[in-house]
């Protein structure tokens, strides 16, 4: 006869909060690392990575533009702005969402985010010219 033992995990509000903080810290670390890579070697990163590498990344960065965290919005926008000159196909495919994100962030309470919005617009215009 088989005996099954049910185990349950008791979650407390403190444990949930700790998990959320840990997840947010990991996400921020990943965004900072990606931003630094894109600042140093944007063309090489886009050319050497498989074309499918950015299919999930660009939408995730676009989603981060709506984050309540100012730091997360800044890092995501900085990463997206770094994609303008190598212009991977995924950014082209999501250009309307990127432009909508820039438009929404134009009134952001953070001056640094608004500055990145302006840099993104200028980079797009320079790329187009």
Question: Explain this structure to me?
Answer:
With 129 residues, this protein is mainly α. Helix 3 packs antiparallel against helix 4. The protein is globular, with a radius of gyration of 19 Å. The longest helix is centred in the first third of the chain and has 28 residues, at 13-40. It is built from seven helices and no strands.
The mean pLDDT is 87
Structural class: mainly alpha
Strand content: under 5%
Unreliable segments of 5+ consecutive residues: 2-8
**What kind of sheet is the major sheet?**
none
**Span of the ends, CA to CA:** 76 Å
Determine Rg (CA atoms, Å). Answer: 19 Å
Count of strand segments: 0
Q: How many helices does DSSP assign?
A: 7
Q: Sketch the topology as an H/E string, one letter per element.
A: HHHHHHH
How helical, in percent, are the residues?
Answer: over 70%
Q: Overall 3D geometry?
A: globular
By oligomeric state, this entry counts as single chain
Summarize this structure briefly:
With 129 residues, the protein is mainly α.
Sequence-ordered SSE layout with sheet pairings:
Layout: H1 13-40, H2 42-48, H3 54-64, H4 70-82, H5 89-93, H6 95-105, H7 111-128
Helix pairs in contact: 1-4, 3-4, 4-7
List keywords for this structure.
72% helix, globular, mainly alpha, single chain, 7 helices, 129 residues
